[in-house]
């Protein structure tokens, strides 16, 4: 019986649960952690530099309105 007299909760998984478990096992290995850390990069500074230089967006008006 659950505290408060309610029904016991059930935990449902979706069809991707086996993939999640497989990735967890893979990432538990030290070799995988090293590779993953090399792949992780922060992209935000690149966009921040572009925005700070005055560039705010692409022109999508076409050839007619450029003239």
Polypeptide structure, described:
By secondary structure, the chain is mostly helical. It is built from four helices and no strands. It has helices spanning 17-27, 30-39, 44-52, 63-66. The model has no long low-confidence stretch (mean pLDDT 77).
Defining traits:
67 residues; mainly alpha; 4 helices; extended
Radius of gyration: 25 Å
Distance between the termini: 76 Å
Count of helix runs:
4
Question: Which sequence of SSEs, written as H and E, runs from N to C?
Answer: HHHH
Strand content: under 5%
Helices, strands, pairings?
Layout: H1 17-27, H2 30-39, H3 44-52, H4 63-66
Give a short synopsis of this structure.
By secondary structure, this protein is mainly α.
């Amino acid at each position: 019986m659950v505290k408060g007299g309610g029904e016991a909760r059930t935990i449902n998984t979706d069809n991707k649960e086996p993939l999640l478990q497989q990735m967890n096992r893979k990432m538990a290995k030290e070799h995988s952690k090293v590779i993953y850390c090399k792949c992780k990069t922060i992209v935000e500074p690149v966009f921040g530099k572009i925005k700070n230089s005055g560039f705010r967006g692409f022109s999508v008006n076409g050839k007619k309105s450029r003239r």
